[in-house]
């Protein structure tokens, strides 16, 4: 078989070779060879010269027009390594020589030596500290405690971001998302964090008032959307931006925050607060508070230009009972919260803080209203004597 593999073969006639004894040997069956003998005599054939190393004589059985060599075997692997192959790991050391190392060392200065020594030392120290920390059992024990205190991480992160957004709000660069972050951080630290700190968990009224506070303080935004189709404030006369001094406003904010923490401290455990029909009065106060805030804002916007600048004295809706129903609804909201978690003493403190602040602000607004509307506002003030609490104050 090895001898036959180096010979030429044809597609139509059997291949063979002639030994020196003039005997034809074929690899086909005898019958096939016999059938093709007549065909051979009619073809113009050329002798095939076999290599002399096999000791073979020419054989007149091959046709030169349709012959082909056996295609060589192909392999995807080579036993010979290519000199052009490159190893990326060895690239930095390709041009490395004794002279290059010598020139690099000769260029070193004491400052470079100290610098590289410090870098290597810090790297070794960092690796050593990391390895010791990973294999320290006390680290994993303390780390597991973080799963118990994760709400504090969230609350502190929200507070820090709220302070950052508030700083941008003071310079007029806060986006809508940052303004929402301010509101959410404030309401979280008013309604959720204090009871969670003193109870270790949250349930019931703190969660309810977290959403009630959002709903309450977004009424003015919804009224602006109803009137103008968007949530943005309109430019107006700054004369109507009535505010007490900054330190007075800061004291008011601190007082409200302290009042909510005192309420959470005074209140019983959340699971001991009764539910069911005993809270019907609380729900009625919540509904009254929300309706008072919404109607007051809506009536004031109808008789105001750009929601801020009043065009006439409003004497309808909640303004028939008190002269400042928006401030009254805010006081009622804080009062309802304290009543819901059963903290009456803290309720008195929060009411006192609100009355001191809103009294000062109401005086500034009434002076401006008298200057603008004169006798009509004085007549209204004589009819509606109470500022915040109907029939009382």
From TrEMBL:
User: Which InterPro entries would you find in this protein's record?
Assistant: Phopholipid_MeTrfase
Recorded superkingdom: Eukaryota
Specify whether Methyltransferase is a keyword of the entry. Answer: no
- Membrane topology type: Multi-pass membrane protein
Q: What keywords were assigned to this record? A: Lipid biosynthesis, Lipid metabolism, Membrane, Phospholipid biosynthesis, Phospholipid metabolism, Transmembrane, Transmembrane helix
Q: Where are the transmembrane segments?
A: 113-135, 147-164, 176-198, 204-223, 247-264, 276-294, 330-358
- Compartment(s): Endomembrane system
Task: Name its GO BP terms in alphabetical order.
Answer: phosphatidylcholine biosynthetic process
Gene Ontology, cellular component aspect: endomembrane system
Q: Pfam families, per this entry?
A: PEMT
| GO MF terms held by the record | transferase activity
Against PANTHER family, the record matches this protein to: PROTEIN C-TERMINAL S-ISOPRENYLCYSTEINE CARBOXYL O-METHYLTRANSFERASE (PTHR12714:SF11), PROTEIN-S ISOPRENYLCYSTEINE O-METHYLTRANSFERASE (PTHR12714)
Write down what this protein is called: Uncharacterized protein
Q: Which organism is it from?
A: Hibiscus syriacus (Rose of Sharon)
């Amino acid at each position: 078989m090895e001898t036959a593999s180096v010979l030429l073969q044809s597609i139509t006639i059997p291949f063979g070779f002639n030994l020196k004894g003039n005997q034809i040997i074929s690899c086909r069956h005898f019958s096939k060879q016999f059938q093709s003998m007549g065909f051979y005599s009619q073809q113009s054939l050329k002798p095939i010269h076999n290599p002399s190393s096999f000791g073979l004589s020419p054989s007149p059985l091959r046709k030169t027009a349709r012959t082909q060599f056996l295609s060589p075997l192909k392999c995807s692997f080579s036993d010979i390594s290519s000199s052009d192959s490159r190893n990326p790991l060895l690239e930095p050391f390709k041009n490395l020589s004794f002279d290059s190392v010598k020139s690099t060392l000769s260029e070193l200065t004491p400052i470079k030596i100290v610098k590289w020594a410090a870098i290597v030392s810090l790297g070794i120290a960092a690796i050593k500290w990391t390895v010791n920390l990973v294999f320290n059992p006390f680290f994993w024990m303390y780390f597991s405690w973080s799963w118990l205190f994760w709400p504090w991480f969230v609350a502190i992160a929200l507070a820090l971001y709220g302070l950052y957004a508030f700083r941008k709000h003071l310079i007029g660069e806060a986006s809508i998302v940052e303004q929402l972050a301010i509101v959410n951080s404030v309401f979280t630290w008013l309604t959720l964090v204090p009871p969670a700190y003193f109870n270790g968990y949250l349930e019931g009224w703190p969660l309810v008032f977290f959403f009630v506070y959002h709903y309450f303080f977004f009424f003015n935004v919804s009224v602006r959307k109803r009137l103008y189709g968007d949530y943005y404030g309109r430019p107006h006369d700054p004369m109507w931006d009535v505010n007490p001094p900054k330190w007075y406003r800061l004291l008011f904010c601190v007082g409200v925050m302290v009042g909510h923490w005192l309420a959470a401290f005074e209140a019983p455990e959340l699971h001991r607060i009764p539910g069911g029909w005993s809270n019907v009065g609380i729900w009625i106060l919540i509904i009254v508070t929300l309706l008072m805030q919404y109607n007051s804002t809506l009536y004031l916007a109808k008789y105001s230009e750009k929601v801020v600048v009043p065009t006439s004295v409003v004497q309808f809706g909640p303004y028939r009972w008190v002269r400042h129903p928006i401030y009254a609804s805010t006081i009622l909201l804080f009062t309802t919260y304290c009543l819901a978690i059963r903290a009456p003493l803290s309720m008195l403190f929060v009411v006192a803080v609100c009355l001191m602040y809103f009294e000062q602000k109401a005086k500034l607004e009434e002076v401006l209203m008298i200057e603008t509307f004169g006798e009509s506002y004085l007549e209204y003030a004589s009819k509606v004597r109470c500022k915040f609490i109907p029939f009382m104050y």
